[in-house]
Amino acid sequence: MKRCPNSRILAIVATLCISLMAVSAFAQLQTGNIFGKAQSKDGSALPGVTVTLSGVGAPQTAVTDAQGNFRFPNLSPGSYTVKAELSGFGTATRAGLTVQVGQNADITMTLNASMAESITVTAESPLLDVRKAGTATNVSKIEMEKIPTSRDPWTVLQSVPAVNVDRINVGGSQSGQQSVYYAKGALSRDNTWNVDGVNITDMGATGSSPLYFDFDSFEEMQATTGGSDPRIETPGVQLNMVTKRGTNDIRGSGRYYYTPGSMQAAAAVPGEATYYLQNTNKVNFVRDYGAEAGGPIWKDHLWFWGARGDNKISVQASNTIVFDSKTGLPVPVVGLFDNIVLRDKNAKLNGQIVASNSAVGFYTFGDKVRNARNLSPTRPFETAWRQIGPTKVYKLEDTQIIGSSLYLTGMWSKISGGFSLNGNGGQGESAPSRWRDANGVNHDNFYTYVTDRPQKQERLDGSKFLDIGKMNHELKFGFGYRNTPVNSSSIYPGPAHGWWDYFNVAPICAAQGLPSNCGIATVGRDVLIGYTEKYNDFYVGDTILMGNLTLQGGLRWDRQQSSNTAISIAANPILATPLTLPCSTTFASSCTGGTLNASLPPVNFAGDPKALKWNSVSPRIGMTYSLGADKRTLLRAGYNRYASQIGSAVSGANPLAGSYFYFLGVDTNGDHVIQRNELQKINSTAGVNPSNPASIALTRRVDYGMKVPTTDEIIIGGERELMSDFSVGVNYTYRKYNNLFTTRFEKTAGAGDYYTPADWVLSSRTAGGTFMQCAPVTGDPTKPGTITINAAGSQVCNGTLINTFTTTTGVALYQLAPGVPVPSNRVLTTRPNYSQKYSGIELTATKRMSHRWMFRGNVSYNDYTESCGANAYADPTAALPTVAVVSGGPGRCPGGQVAPQSAGSGAFGNDFISAKWNANLTGAFIAPWDINLGASLSARQGYPRPFRSSVSGLPGGTITVMLDPMGANRFDNVYELDLRIAKDFRFMNRVGMTVSGDLFNAPNKRTVLQRETSIIRNAAPSVANPTGVTSNPGGNRITEMQSPRIWRLGAKFNF
């Protein structure tokens, strides 16, 4: 007798083959869902039950299907009530259901077989979400109101498990500028930003936000760091922010928060830094004020909401003492306030004229004006940027319900974005030129940057609910198109469009027989870049519920394409005609006959011959299983693949991305302006074909056969509901990052003959010994704090000895083998035989607000490493990963810990973001007499402090060498404790007011967060310095500290 296969197994297999499944959405989400089942007292399913939902927006009605199921998808965040009614049965009502972004509330409505009996239950939504197979953190409106924060999304991200942020914002000390952040090894360029379902991610600075935000406009925020939703495009942090909306109740609020500098603890300069720092990070004031209101225009059909918020931030960054060379006395520096003004406007119109259709119109405006961006000890006020540039976002969305089980949502959005950065020294050829002194401090001016970054996006998403056998299905699908072109320019002011540099230059000049007042003159064309970016995506999936088991997954297809557009650039003013000069000895291999005609004539670029195209297919598979009849323990597992976003990648292969000659010369008249007759030798070039400077062909190009960077992820975890309002969880994540792209160099333009370690030979090793940090003696011009070499070859501090460092010998230095040309032909391509891995575990605990208290806490362990094979790098020298030109490609890959170097808004170049552990605890308690107490504790391991040496005299230029493995030396661990006390008042049972005081950095921790880690200079031996090694006078200097303790006072009313 032939046995028939189990029909349930066949149904499962068939469904998997057809749809590949999907999970409840995280990406680009602005809504949540309520799913439920109506049953009789004996547990039997009740079909035909009328279920009414009331709360935010218009009431909605559903009828249960044959299995007693009902659903209310795409709900705005907020509180809802569900009522179930059936003839011959009583009424069941459940109030107080909270809907959160990307979350699913599964409830059961039990009806008794009695016409008279009615059951009303007030209870929150279940904490465990059986449709959730990823890792996400929801931050509700009540948490944003009651937990002390600096009131911006970047501060909130610090509270998300496994997220590392590059700065510590103490009461607004870093507000108004964007943090760089990483989670689970994902590159910061793979982060995405979404507001009310619109992907607003800035693709010119890929992974950042084009906006700053009115914090009180948010209803809820959600950060996703992994999951099986096929709508997630990248492995980075997916940040979803949902603004408020109008309802049937007229409501609103207004606030004024003031953080005065007079209520900050003294920003004292540590004793070791008194000779070079006038002050450390200090708040002058922060003012945050605004209002929002909304209500019905036509009750149950049309609602309006609007908001306006301003944020004025004035801080005093760390700044350097400048000494007069003649008197040896410090020169007073005043007025170094970094002032930021953020202005935000929001408007939203919600409509539901008929029950089966709803629509949304949304507008937001954000502008930022800043007088001193990147103000720091190495960027005094005249070299800091003035930033201006508003961004506007428009969105139209419509949702149509077809029948009772098909939901379609169409969305269109437009973003007009861009900004400009202008050096405070002025713009144009008549403005002062930038120059940098021997201590690395810039003077007089900086370059001008202007960028235009518009975006357009269209989407169609849908969901279909159906039953097959005893299985409940939620099919999801969607299509999307996004267009994000970018056009930018970078222009140096002054008549030469260039600048003098004396930092780490003296050894180079000495080796070339030039005087001690020699400098490097950088002369280039203006940088004009334009590129297109177009994105298409399609996804499909299914969520299958079978008793205690939920299967989830999906399939996503992405097509990304980008190309550099046509552009023309004028000649450099002083190199429009050739200038014949001898070459430095380190440049001789590319310099015919020992001389070279240096010129930068006008050039025309016709654009890339074709677009770089990435096509990727990303499967997502997940499952959850509820243990026991009470289903209070949930197990999760998933496998997911992600593709990186192409972003600004091709801009690095634009042949006009930067064309420079680097000269050695002497500023004979001391005006800090480069003249032709001051240039003496050609030291190196970048982005120029030295033998034909007018040619742009293939000096930078794209490898159109490069692979799409992908990430494979495995998540295993579980969650336990200890009480109805308290759960704990644990998740383990493993990730492998493949096909990462980089810039490699080829010897022959277009030939693909890439440099390899075989093209380098051992030159020498870094010298060990004791090196010093030397301070000037105030008022004594003979002791300016310089370091010289005496007749015995020992270093001498001409001033006061502050600190010493002892390093060992043995870091190998390599140079190009004889006959190998200096790298000049760049190729954007896949980095061969290279991958990165992340392995981490996170412990979480969540207690939502009930019984007068709430709590959210997490602890994470992170291990982020790299693996290298043959030709993963070219130059074997242990350089920083960011070094490319000298290395002939990416820096040497030693394996071990990965610590990306920050490049965020502000001066964070000495921030290497990698903490093996981090933790965050937040909580609030409502005490008697309506007194609110709140606290937030953030802690992490100190970031790496890699000691470095600046090595000159190698062919191609100067290279920065790591003296120790990444992570061998670290800064101190960082702890930030913020406290809050507030009192609520009520007037006429309608108007409320809250007065509050927030204390940031309560223990007044002054942890050093950044230092100058370049402590040694290695150069060719000379008569004056037989070893060629000396200390960097600016080495080990503090550049950033944790801002001191400060109070914020606030008042907020609501109605």
Walk me through this protein's architecture:
The longest helix has 13 residues. This protein has four helices and 71 strands. The strands form 16 sheets. The protein has a 27-stranded antiparallel β-sheet that branches. Strand 61 and strand 62 form a beta hairpin. It is mainly β and 1055 residues long. The N terminus is likely disordered. Among the domains are: 115 residues, Immunoglobulins (Immunoglobulin-like, Sandwich), CATH 2.60.40.10; 39 residues, no CATH class. The termini are far apart.
* Helix fraction by DSSP (H/I, runs of at least 4): under 10%
CATH topology type of one domain = Immunoglobulin-like
Main beta sheet: 27 strands, antiparallel
Number of strands: 71
Tell me, rounded to a whole number, the average pLDDT. 87
Q: Going by CATH, what is the homologous superfamily of one domain?
A: Immunoglobulins
User: Helix- and strand-based class?
Assistant: mainly beta
CATH architecture of one domain: Sandwich
Helix and strand topology:
Elements: H1 7-19, E1 32-40, E2 50-54, E3 60-63, E4 69-75, E5 78-85, E6 91-99, E7 104-111, E8 118-122, E9 135-140, H2 141-146, H3 153-157, E10 163-165, E11 181-183, E12 192-195, E13 198-199, E14 218-226, E15 238-243, E16 251-260, E17 277-279, E18 282-298, E19 302-316, E20 319-320, E21 322-323, E22 330-331, E23 337-354, E24 357-373, E25 385-388, E26 390-402, E27 406-416, E28 418-423, E29 435-436, E30 442-443, E31 448-452, E32 455-468, E33 471-483, E34 486-491, E35 498-501, H4 506-511, E36 519-524, E37 527-546, E38 549-564, E39 567-569, E40 579-582, E41 595-598, E42 603-605, E43 612-627, E44 633-643, E45 660-665, E46 679-686, E47 700-702, E48 710-723, E49 726-738, E50 741-746, E51 760-765, E52 769-775, E53 786-789, E54 795-798, E55 800-807, E56 812-816, E57 825-830, E58 834-850, E59 853-868, E60 896-897, E61 917-927, E62 931-940, E63 948-954, E64 957-962, E65 974-987, E66 991-1000, E67 1008-1011, E68 1014-1018, E69 1029-1031, E70 1038-1041, E71 1046-1054
Parallel strand pairs: 1-7, 6-8, 12-15, 29-35, 47-57, 63-68
Antiparallel strand pairs: 1-4, 2-3, 2-5, 5-6, 9-14, 10-11, 12-13, 14-15, 16-18, 16-71, 17-20, 18-19, 19-23, 21-22, 23-24, 24-25, 24-26, 25-28, 26-27, 27-32, 28-31, 29-30, 31-34, 32-33, 33-37, 34-37, 35-36, 36-45, 37-38, 38-43, 39-42, 40-41, 43-44, 44-48, 45-46, 48-49, 49-58, 50-57, 51-56, 52-55, ...
